[in-house]
Design a protein that fits this description.
245 residues; alpha/beta; Undecaprenyl pyrophosphate synthetase
């Protein structure tokens, strides 16, 4: 299958979200430790961020570590934390040089203090950048995101006086993705066909693409192919497509 498109053919989704899945299977198929797959996955992350910026995507959200991932073997968790530290230390300068703004969404209080400091530092240094908005979900769960937003709303005395659109607007201001548009497209690699508690509210009208490609093999051509599929979808947001003529 040809996966190349010219840039003038690309009708770019404003916000692309990706569930980066398949690192362990990539390694297992090669007789390698799962940790090697995670290292290759980190390289794919870097490639994809660069590709998204080159193609003109405005927002890119990557599911890096879910709130359920803590149940993985201790050695694998340690390797994931090592890679996270390495990425934050080595890539912050590149984010700045490429005018990329970083936001981490999720409950980062569960991480070691040095990781929290690295996250905050990268966010603060890049907060005035106006190129690609890179959001990485770490210790994130969609249900928890909704519940924490409800918790913040619960104490507001005037809530009963608002109509539903007003409540929705206020609710969305308390989501961890506040200020970002909802994803136009959600991609999941590795062939799995579920969203695994990722951006449950935000993906209500996203276009889904499930690809058999394992995350360490994901690259610019894969992203271009996903966008070409997106261009072929009829996005109606629950309504009917306007008739022509």
């Amino acid at each position: 299958m040809v996966r190349e498109m010219s840039e003038e053919q690309l009708n770019m989704p404003r916000h692309v979200a990706i569930i980066m899945d398949g690192n362990g299977r990539w390694a297992t198929r090669r007789g390698l430790p799962r940790t090697v797959g995670h290292r290759q996955g980190a390289k794919a992350l870097k490639r994809t961020v660069r590709a998204a910026g080159e193609l003109g995507v405005e927002y890119l959200t990557l599911f890096g570590f879910s709130s359920e991932n803590w149940s993985r073997p201790e050695g694998e968790i340690k390797e994931l934390m090592r890679l996270l530290r390495y990425y934050l230390r080595s890539e912050t300068a590149e984010l700045l040089n490429n005018n990329i703004r970083l936001r981490v969404v999720g409950d980062i209080s569960a991480f070691d203090n040095d990781i929290i400091d690295l996250i905050r530092n990268a966010e603060q240094l890049s907060e005035n950048n106006d190129g690609l908005f890179l959001s990485i979900a770490l210790n994130y769960g969609g249900r928890n995101d909704i519940l924490q937003a409800i918790q913040k709303l619960a104490g507001q005395d005037d809530l009963g006086t608002l109509d539903l659109p007003q409540i929705q607007d206020r609710f969305e201001r308390h989501l961890l993705t506040a200020g970002m548009p909802d994803p136009d497209m959600l991609i999941r690699t590795s062939g799995e066909q579920r969203i695994s508690n990722f951006l449950l509210w935000q993906c209500a009208y996203s276009e889904f693409l499930f690809t058999d490609t394992l995350w360490p093999d994901f690259d610019k051509s894969e992203l271009e192919y996903a966008i070409s599929v997106y261009n072929g979808r009829d996005r109606r947001f629950g309504g009917l497509k306007a008739s022509k003529g």
